[in-house]
């Protein structure tokens, strides 16, 4: 009786197990067809084929087939001569089955980790290194990943062997425009493995700079003006037949430079008078004349002409039917965007300021000539002269004057005098029926000392050692001739001694 409960409990557990198994498993013919009998091997061939063709490849595709790509397909790299440059091949999803090929334009330079060109070195990450690049290395480079044929393009540019910087900006073989009064610095630098000697020239002439600036290849332009306009060339002298060089063209904008050769213009009543001024300016300028504070304009009285004269702009004012009211000071005013300038011209009936023409010296006699414009006859001329160091001028009042042979209204003044040796200064003024002119600018001349002129120029004499050997000036100086003759026995003896030693 004690075993009866245990038997009942065991039966209930078996019934429960069979009930759960029936609910979880298929029944009928389908169960028999799909049921695997472990005693007789695998499933049928048809089911195995379907499973292998569809499920397994799908899992591999999802896991391993991400595409190769470059985040930057186009890259630009700039370098200076002598630099070491690394060209990257940064391909995403690069696999062990991929290979990177490098091309310079269309030429293969690297196959995987194997460099074909001796100019390149391959790195483990497929980057390519070029050492001490030159201008010949500049080109289009391609990194191509196989087998997908995905490319990355790198444009390598290599700067010149020499560059010119203006205020730290590269201006090599370019033009620069400065403004009057500016301060700028030109710096020439080379990119070569050897030491170079920097040499500057300006408009074809060697440019002198301080020792420090020369060593640094620097040209300092302070307070620039018209005289700084031109071509600055830099040469990096490396001792080769083809040294690097470059240039920069400098233009300067400046206020007008105004001048005239005739600050005093002679005229006569009822005639016409021409007053002119010459100027240079950048940018272009405008010019006009002013008298008594009023700007003169075109009229029956005035005409204005603009022309070119010896690389200058010239503005000419013509005054017609001159009378007393036209005499006085005229201003030629020129202005542009940078500034303005002017020159003053005096119109009168008096002679113009004499201009020196020529002179000749014969011993201690000097003959000088001046030209003077005067439509009225000259009545008198005065010459002042003095020796350097003197405090007062000596005066000659009566000087020979005569009309010019070819041009009317021009007089020629000639004077001859005998002076002691030294540096002299002379100037003249003239008088016509209306008054005196201004003194001419000083003319300086030298009267040589006759005794000093007999001294032989040391530069024309042979070196001292040759003179001692008996080779020197022949004739003129008896002392030298006597010296040469006295040395002849010694020379003969020396020649005999040399011949004896050769035996």
Explained architecture:
The chain has 503 residues and is an alpha+beta fold. Helix content is 17%, strand content 44%. It is built from 6 helices and 37 strands. Strands 14, 16, 17, 19, 20, 22, 25 and 26 form an 8-stranded mixed β-sheet that branches. It has a 6-stranded mixed β-sheet with strand order 2-11-10-5-6-7, with no helix packed on it. Strands 21-28-27-23-24 form a 5-stranded mixed β-sheet, with no helix packed on it. Strand 27 (328-335) and strand 28 form a beta hairpin. The chain is elongated and about 115 Å long. The chain starts with a helix and ends with a helix. 19% of the residues are buried.
Blueprint (SSEs and pairs):
Elements: H1 4-24, H2 29-34, H3 45-64, E1 69-70, E2 74-79, E3 85-87, E4 91-92, E5 99-104, E6 107-111, E7 114-115, E8 120-122, E9 128-130, E10 139-146, E11 150-158, E12 162-166, E13 169-170, E14 174-179, E15 184-190, E16 197-202, E17 205-206, H4 211-216, E18 218-221, E19 230-237, E20 245-259, E21 264-266, E22 273-282, E23 286-291, E24 294-295, E25 302-309, E26 312-319, E27 328-335, E28 340-348, E29 355-362, E30 365-373, E31 378-387, E32 394-396, E33 400-403, E34 410-418, E35 422-432, E36 435-436, E37 443-447, H5 464-468, H6 478-502
Parallel strand pairs: 2-11, 14-20, 21-28
Antiparallel strand pairs: 1-4, 3-9, 5-6, 5-10, 6-7, 8-9, 10-11, 12-13, 12-15, 15-18, 16-17, 16-19, 19-20, 20-22, 22-26, 23-24, 23-27, 25-26, 27-28, 29-30, 30-34, 31-32, 31-35, 33-34, 35-36, 35-37
């Amino acid at each position: 009786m004690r075993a009866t409960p245990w038997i009942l409990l065991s039966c209930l557990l078996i019934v429960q197990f069979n009930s759960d198994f029936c609910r979880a498993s298929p029944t009928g013919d389908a169960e028999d067809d799909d049921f695997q009998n472990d005693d007789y091997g695998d499933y049928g061939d048809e089911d195995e084929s379907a499973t292998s063709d569809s499920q397994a490849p799908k899992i591999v595709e999802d896991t391993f087939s991400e595409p190769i790509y470059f985040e930057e397909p186009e890259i630009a790299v700039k370098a200076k001569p002598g630099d070491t440059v690394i060209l990257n091949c940064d391909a995403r999803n690069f696999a062990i089955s991929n290979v990177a090929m490098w091309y310079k334009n269309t030429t293969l330079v690297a196959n995987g980790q194997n460099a074909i060109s001796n100019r390149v070195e391959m790195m483990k990450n497929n980057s390519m290194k070029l050492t001490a690049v030159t201008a010949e290395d500049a080109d289009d480079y391609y990194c191509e990943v196989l087998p997908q044929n995905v490319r990355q393009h790198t444009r390598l540019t290599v700067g010149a062997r020499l560059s010119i910087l203006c205020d730290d900006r590269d201006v090599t073989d370019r033009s620069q425009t400065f403004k009057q009064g500016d301060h700028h610095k030109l710096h020439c630098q080379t990119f070569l493995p050897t030491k170079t000697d920097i040499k500057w020239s300006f408009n074809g002439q060697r440019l002198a700079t301080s020792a420090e600036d020369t060593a640094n290849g620097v040209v300092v332009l302070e307070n620039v003006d018209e005289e700084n306009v031109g071509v600055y060339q830099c040469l990096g002298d490396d001792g080769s037949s083809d040294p690097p060089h470059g240039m920069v063209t400098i233009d300067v904008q400046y206020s007008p430079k105004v001048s005239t050769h005739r600050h005093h213009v002679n005229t006569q009543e009822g005639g016409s008078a021409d007053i002119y001024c010459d100027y240079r300016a950048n940018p272009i300028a405008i010019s006009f004349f002013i008298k008594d504070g009023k700007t003169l304009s075109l009229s029956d009285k005035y005409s204005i002409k603009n022309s070119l004269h010896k690389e200058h702009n010239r503005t000419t004012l013509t005054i017609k039917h001159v009378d007393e009211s036209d005499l006085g000071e005229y201003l030629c005013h020129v202005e542009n965007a940078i500034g303005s300038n002017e020159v003053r011209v005096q119109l009168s009936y008096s002679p113009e300021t004499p201009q020196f023409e020529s002179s000749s010296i014969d011993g201690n006699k000097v003959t000088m000539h001046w030209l003077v414009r005067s439509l009225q006859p000259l009545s008198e001329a005065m010459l002042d002269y003095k020796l350097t160091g003197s405090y007062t001028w000596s005066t000659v009042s009566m000087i020979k004057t005569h009309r010019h042979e070819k041009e009317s209204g021009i007089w020629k003044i000639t004077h001859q005098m005998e002076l002691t040796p030294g540096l002299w200064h002379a100037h003249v003024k003239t008088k016509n029926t209306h008054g005196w002119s201004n003194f001419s600018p000083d003319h300086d001349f030298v009267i040589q000392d006759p005794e000093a002129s007999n001294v032989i120029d040391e530069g024309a004499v042979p070196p001292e050692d040759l003179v001692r050997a008996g080779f020197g000036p022949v004739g003129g100086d008896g002392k030298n001739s006597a010296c040469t003759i006295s040395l002849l026995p010694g020379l003969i003896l020396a020649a005999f001694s040399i011949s004896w030693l050769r035996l």
